[in-house]
Each structure stands twice: as structure tokens, then as C-alpha cells.
Amino acid sequence: MMMLFPLLPLMLLSVCTARVGSVSAPVHTFKQTDPVTGMQLECDRCPPGTFLRASCTSTHKSECAPCPQGSFTELWNHIEKCLRCGVCGHNQVVKAACAADSNCQCECKQGYYYKTKYEMCVRHSECPSGEGVLSTGTANEDTVCHTCPDGTFSDAVSAELNCSEHKSCDAAGLVLVLKGSSWHDSVCVSCGDLRATDGANYLKDIIPAFFLHHKMSIRRLRRLVHNLPSEDGKKQGGTSTLSLSDANVRINMWVASATAKQIRQLPAVLTKVGANNIGERLQNKMHRIDSNLKELCTLGNEEVVE
Question: Can you give the pTM of this predicted structure?
């Protein structure tokens, strides 16, 4: 946690911090020499929320005054001016406002936590696809992720979402043509559905999650978008400056309108742009769907090819 610096005479705080630990019993007096008589005096200190307006003399006690707005003292003191209230730092919000007897206290704003190593608030980590949030981040702790266990998946990058259970094809009266993994849901079909004539139509269901999980450099991703198959054979323009998120949006838009024939060309396009391994993985997914569609919807067999 952020620490509250001890109060020192003449010290002005420039930032708000969080208070921790305990302090020893306060000393309520201090020694001072009377400027007129030269006598050693024991004067009263001023309580928190006040400052010493006038020191004691041989005939008068110490005179204390309240801290004006925007200033504070937290300890018994004999300083001549209250300390200026601090301000919260970058990515911090006020947890407790400054008062006459306490400086303001800050904490990391929503979505951030205090990282001791850097002594600053940093954004909560996001769990990648294939992992879910075991515990959400707080102002003092980062997100804790875990790999999705068998039977569950996560197809999102999130600091809040946990893994979800794979859908049950049997419960919906459908057949399973692609078992779910840690990063995509199970793919179910109805053999009476016209889409069942081509497995590429079902591969579309997992392609957005596929590209989210299988990382590609932005340069290669831009080349992929540029070379996505189209009805007229034209290349997609405006790809050289696409950001990572924009490139994924363009891919998802293409998937939504792509024909089965165009989807089948996608592994070859991946190979063309140098993503050979990713292309092979996508081709394998398509092969599993095709094989299971043939077995389950043609022969009525219930064994699924993994």
C-alpha cells in the first residue's frame, strides 16, 4: 500500500498517501528558552488540526490556532504553519478528503492497483483467451488468472470474466462436431440444417476466437486482412495503418459475410502471409468438423473425431 510519510516541521506534502502502521504515544510538550528572561520553559504543543500561533512565555501558555482550509497537521506539534494538503497522483482517486487533522488519502482508481515495485498505480492485468479470472483485481491487488479447466472455455481477453461451461449439444437435441477447448465453445449442429452440407459454415463460429487466441504480429495481421478472399477478387484496402483491434474488427466483419468457399481459402491465405503453423491449426479444425459431419449426419455414428 501507499504509505503516509511522517510529519516533519517545515515539510510540505505534495502528494496524498495511504496511512499504515502505528505511532508512539504523542509528546504534548516541548522545551524552549524564554527570549526575555532566558529561562528554560516547558511549553504545550498544539493538538492535531492546529498550529502554534505563539510560543509560551513565563507568563502565557502556548497559543494554538486551527489550520485554515487546505492545510492540516496530524500530530501534536509546535510548527508555525500547517502543512498544505496534498493531491492524488496519476491514476489515483481520493479515498478520504483532506481535513484539518489529516492529509487526504488516495487509492488507485477503478481498474488499477498499486504496484509496489513501481510505486504507482497500474492497470489490472487482463486474462488472455483460454484463461478466466480467478479473482478480480482490487486497489491493492492485481487480477489473478487461471487456465480454464476441462469442460470450460474463455474466448475473451478480460479482467473480469471467468471461464464458461461448454454448451451441451445433447441437451439442445444437436450433435457435436467439434469439441470445445479452453479458448472456444463446443460446436453443435442439426443434421437437418442446410448449413450442415458444408463444415466451413460451422468453422465460422470459432474464427473470431481463433484469431484472438493465436497471436500474430500486427504486420502479418495487416497482410492477412489485405488478402482476405472476396467475391470480386479485389484486395482489401486501407490495411497498412490498421491497429491490432481494428484488424480484428475487419476480420470479424469479413467472417460474418464470408461464404463457405471463402472460409475454406483462409488456411491457404494464412500460409501465404507466413503464418504456416496457424494456417495448419485452422485447417485441422476444419478437417475435424468435416469428418464429424460426414460420420454423424450421414451415417448416424455418434463418435466424434477429436
Answer: 0.72
